[in-house]
């Protein structure tokens, strides 16, 4: 069974400056698609930390989804680090450059060398043009692993995942089991008391979990 992992990239997450809502959104979408999510981690923009996190993910997971680190600044190192982890070259994707020019021309902004950094992705990637921003997303298949990268900007990430990643996963891995979840709100009972009430029911079920 496929094991999935989410990696949220950005020092601002670890410093508490922002709340990582991206991982929560992706987790819900994976569960809805019948994908088992095993790990969620957050890592800083430090190249060594990100590289070690990616290498660990490649060892233990089949599907790795990253968010963040795709912008034009010096600390945006996601694609460079993925390429390094997989021993791949970074190559220019003309369609990414065309989209970048289109967006920046629309707002009368000059294209700088730092902007052009965003058009270089790991070789072999299936590029996802970002209609909502300048940084392209990608889906990359290598050595029976799937590595997907999306922008950290929430509205960009959500749209690109719903429009591209979820259809891709459903086509490649049609869910054999439909997962459903329910939230029960209880008052006046502690967790241990609830556990006693439903223990017999849980023991009779297969492929069931609660928390």
TrEMBL record:
<dbReference type="Pfam" id="PF00994">
    <property type="entry name" value="MoCF_biosynth"/>
</dbReference>
<protein>
    <recommendedName>
        <fullName>MoaB/Mog domain-containing protein</fullName>
    </recommendedName>
</protein>
<dbReference type="InterPro" id="IPR036425">
    <property type="entry name" value="MoaB/Mog-like_dom_sf"/>
</dbReference>
<dbReference type="InterPro" id="IPR050101">
    <property type="entry name" value="CinA"/>
</dbReference>
<feature type="domain" description="MoaB/Mog">
    <location>
        <begin position="5"/>
        <end position="172"/>
    </location>
</feature>
<dbReference type="InterPro" id="IPR001453">
    <property type="entry name" value="MoaB/Mog_dom"/>
</dbReference>
């Amino acid at each position: 069974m496929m094991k999935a992992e989410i990696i949220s990239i950005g020092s601002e997450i670890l410093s508490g400056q922002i709340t990582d809502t991206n991982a929560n959104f992706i987790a819900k979408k994976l569960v809805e698609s019948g994908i088992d999510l095993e790990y969620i981690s957050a890592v800083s923009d430090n190249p060594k930390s990100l590289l070690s996190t990616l290498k660990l993910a490649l060892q233990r997971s089949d599907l790795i989804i990253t968010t963040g680190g795709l912008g034009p600044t010096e600390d945006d190192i996601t694609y460079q680090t993925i390429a390094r982890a997989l021993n791949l070259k970074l190559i220019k994707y003309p369609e990414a450059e065309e989209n970048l020019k289109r967006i920046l021309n629309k707002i009368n902004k000059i294209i700088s060398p730092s902007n052009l950094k965003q058009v270089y992705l790991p070789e072999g990637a299936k590029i996802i043009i970002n209609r909502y921003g300048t940084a392209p997303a990608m889906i990359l298949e290598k050595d029976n692993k799937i590595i997907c990268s999306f922008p950290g900007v929430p509205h960009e990430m959500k749209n690109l995942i719903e429009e591209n990643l979820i259809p891709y996963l459903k086509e490649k891995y049609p869910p054999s089991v439909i997962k459903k979840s329910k939230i029960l709100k209880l008052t006046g009972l502690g967790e241990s008391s609830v556990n006693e009430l439903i223990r017999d029911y849980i023991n009779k079920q297969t492929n069931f979990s609660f928390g």
